[in-house]
Amino acid sequence: MIADDVFKSYFDSLISGKRNDCRIIVDGLMTDHYSVEEIYSDLFQRSLYQVGEYWERNLISVATEHMATAITENLMILLQPAIFTTERVGKKAVIATVAGEYHQVGAKMVADIFEMNGWDGFFLGGNTPGNELIRFIDENKPDVIGLSLTIYFNFPVLISGIKQIRHYFDDTPLIVGGQAFRWGVKPEALSAFKETYYLDSIGALNRFF
Ligand code: B12
Questions:
Q1: Distance 203 CA to ligand 1 centre (A)
Q2: Are 102 and 143 members of one domain?
Q3: Could you give the strand order of the β-sheet that contains 196-198, starting from the edge strand earlier in sequence?
Q4: Most buried among 66, 91, 114, 189, by the most CB within 10 A?
């Protein structure tokens, strides 16, 4: 667990745009052997959730929220030496957000955790068109497909995306996650689909490793 004072100092630097101060904190945590999962969850995810709260309460502007997200995505690169050194296990995961969904940081973290465990973790970014996802899956034949959903009103797009995937790929395990499930989407909505599971965090990916 990352100490609250470290988190606070990081968060203050993040919303002030002090990129180098953020970098120094992340470097320090890596030197102190905090894991990728801890830095992703207890620093990056926690701070972005707080950025969302500040934005909602009008304490920061949309521009500051964009800046904080851009800084976070850049800082994730610092962890690459810990992510890409693993021996390969010959498995592939394709991770995307559903069409119309621009929140991509969580999906990127998921792809990174697969990479860190020796898989090829293909990350397709935000707003992946359904047909293009199908094509990519067909070309790469992954062992697992992951979809991320943040915004509740994109739920119908998720369901049509899952139907499309299941039409072409009957039994490739499909994992779904993201904050829409904290705000009303019921994981049981996925039970109609074969081999389709809701996972609430990157920690829950351990079942694959
Ligand atoms: C950054 C941000 C944006 C950026 C995203 C840019 C980018 N590069 O991703 C931009 C500016 C595009 C944006 C747009 C919008 N946003 Co926004 N955004 C955020 C913010 C501040 C951070 C998102 C984030 O990266 N979180 C951190 C990641 C790491 O967390 P995570 O996604 O939950 O991922 C973790 C788990 O959920 C899980 N997970 C996620 N996906 C998956 C997938 C699988 C397969 C698995 C296993 C696990 C998993 O693992 C991850 C790691 O633990 C959030 C605040 C928040 N609470 O998150 C608001 C927030 C999500 N946004 C919000 C809103 C309202 C919007 C807009 C509708 C605003 C508008 N009026 O235009 C648009 C919608 C755009 C769209 N159609 O997608 C609201 C949503 C409220 C709600 N109840 O639905 C939030 C909560 C802000 C708020 N407090 O009101 N946003």
A1: 18
A2: yes
A3: 120-123, 92-97, 144-148, 174-177, 196-198
A4: 114
